Amino acid sequence: MSIKKDLVIVGGGPAGLAAAIGAREAGIEDLVILEREHQAGGILRQCIHNGFGLHRFGEELTGPEYAQRDINRAEELGLDIRCDTTVLAVDHDRRVTCVSAERGVEVFEAGAVVLAMGCRERPRGALGTPGTRCAGVYTAGTAQRFVNLMGEMPGKRVVILGSGDIGLIMARRMTLQGAKVLACVELMPYSSGLNRNIVQCLEDYDIPLYLSHTVTAIEGRERLTGVTVSAVDERRRPIPGTEKHFDCDTLLLSVGLIPENELSRGAGVELSPVTSGAVVDDSLATSIPGVFACGNVLHVHDLVDHVSNESFLAGRAAAAFIREGEHKGASVRVLDGKGVRGVVPQRIRLQGANSVDVQLMFRPDAVYRNATVVAECGGQVLAKKRAMIFTPGEMAVLPLKAEALKGVAGDITVRMDV
Hints:
By secondary structure, the chain is α/β, with parallel strands linked by helices.
């Protein structure tokens, strides 16, 4: 038997909670959040460092504090959050199949679905690094869970591969817990993390950052005993004669995040080859009518504040779909231009006098200094923004005013103007 619901939200992390709050505040009463963990809050539960909430709340919060504010709001609104519930499938007719120990297998027939499954870390198997399958090699997020939620230390002498934000934060965390972090090694000639994390987590603790380097050998039989690090050339190939050896018992991998889109793919949602997330319009609607995507399952964010703001929009858009049905008007594509990767949204609806402001988000493909990002259509500049620096480690945001969209009839291209 199927259970009818106006709205089903897959994921109870910051994106799912914000989408549910946005939908309820927009008047949707009959909704459910399905979360596979034993409590809501997502990855924020293990992010005990501060720095969250500055944009949204105007104050510094830890991850659990930030999550708790949305959990409290959800409780105030009486939202139905079902934890320990694994979603098995979402189909193109908006049927959501899930299973839990308490209720068994359930099938929801939803008026709309919001995909908010978050992302996962890229594992060692995706790197092709030679070496034995010894203990002591972890993703940075796994190590964070060990230390912050389980009270266990994964090792005492640590090398970190990759300079993503989780890896940088774990460099500081492991140091504070008494471990010796020997180095942070980054394949690219620039860090993939926020600059503030480089300063606060590496420089403040005298942890060296080796740019244009990578791990070329993993050593050890039962347990990791050391790694070899080499410099790489412009084609990212190891340079002979540049090897450095580190005696260590732990290697943490912070080598990128991948949106969790297996359910999206199963539903037939069109995915972007650049972001690995769904292709969406400015309401965060996917290619499947009534299915929306938001948060890190759409594209990997730097700040949870941006995840929440995006997800409020998705919840309100899902509510509008439930009430009014699919938008039937014309839309235009938004394309990546020179120096730009992964613009979201990839489509903008043309609504005439009812056009709304749109936030275009993307990552530059390299470090650009004193540059301008431009959105244009047919040679007409619709929006532009200048900054002292654009870096791949930080999401760039270009506001596109509704007024600028009037009269637009062709593709919009976003490019860097150096």
